[in-house]
Amino acid sequence: MGHQNERGMVEARPPRSEDRLLLDESVHRTANEITAAIAALRLVKAARGPDARLRMVDEALLRLEGFAGTHRLLAHLPVTSVNAGADLEQLCRKIVEGRRLGGRKTVTLSIPDLWLDGATARRLLLIAAELVANALHHSLAVGGSRLEVALTVEGTDAVMTVADDGPGIAPSAATGGTGQGTGIVDDLVHLSEGTIERRTGVAGTTVTVTLPLDMTALARVRGRG
User: Which residues contact 225 (CB under 8 A, 6 or more apart)?
Assistant: First the structure.
């Protein structure tokens, strides 16, 4: 990923530090939620009849409450180990809260209790926040009916899968790095020395993120247990 200079040449963008990534992710997520809340309140203003207005106010409040819960969860900075499974499930539920999915929309969470080292768990949750929010917005909100989030540990790696049955990612966006959220996800994966695989088509999109665990940190925690 990079940007064009004055001569039209692509220059490599320097990698972001973890502190910078945390700031960028927080700003990006906050801006998105504020924009959505403003749009919801504009609909309230334009709605006719007290019943419609009250319903829209309730939806806007649920959206903001879900965002507040998500923000509190992601602001937590674990330093040793954390039940990433429990936190990921709570995160997904908070993101879904307040979003008017409508119809026969299903969100399936296959997330057992899994204790991961704190650094990996934090990055995993930040990545999940972007992927789940994107899937809700670009899949379930535009014709998709199913979203599945799964987390497992395979050997010394944490593996998270986010899959939907929406219309798929446009070819121009399939390579990643086309939006701020995608760039943050890719940078977090790179920072963790992990991998990300995106498979997309008319049957939906599946994103698989693999992050190596800090086995030394986990061993220290287990040794004190």
Answer: none
Query: Which is nearest to 196 in space by CA: 217, 177, 219?
Result: 177
In residues, how long is the chain?
225
Q: Which helix (H) or strand (E) holds 164?
A: strand 157-164
Which alpha helices (DSSP H) does the chain contain, by range? 18-46, 50-75, 84-96, 118-138, 180-191, 215-224
| Opening angle at CA 60, ends 47 and 102, nearest 5 | 80
CB 70 within 8 A of CB 28: no
> Crossing angle for the helix pair 18-46 and 180-191, nearest 10 degrees?
150
Alpha carbon distance 3, 13 (integer Å): 7
- Tracing tokens 């995106």 back to the chain, one arrives at 198
Q: What is the pTM of this model?
A: 0.73
CA dihedral (146, 128, 139, 203) in degrees, to 10, reads -60
At residue 113, φ and ψ (nearest 5 deg) are: -65, 120
CA dihedral over 199, 200, 206, 209, signed as positive or negative? positive
Q: How does pLDDT run across 160-208, given as a tens digit for each residue?
A: 999 999 888 776 554 443 455 678 899 899 988 999 999 999 889 999 9
State the Cα–Cα distance between residues 129 and 113, nearest whole angstrom.
18
User: How is residue 99 annotated by DSSP?
Assistant: -
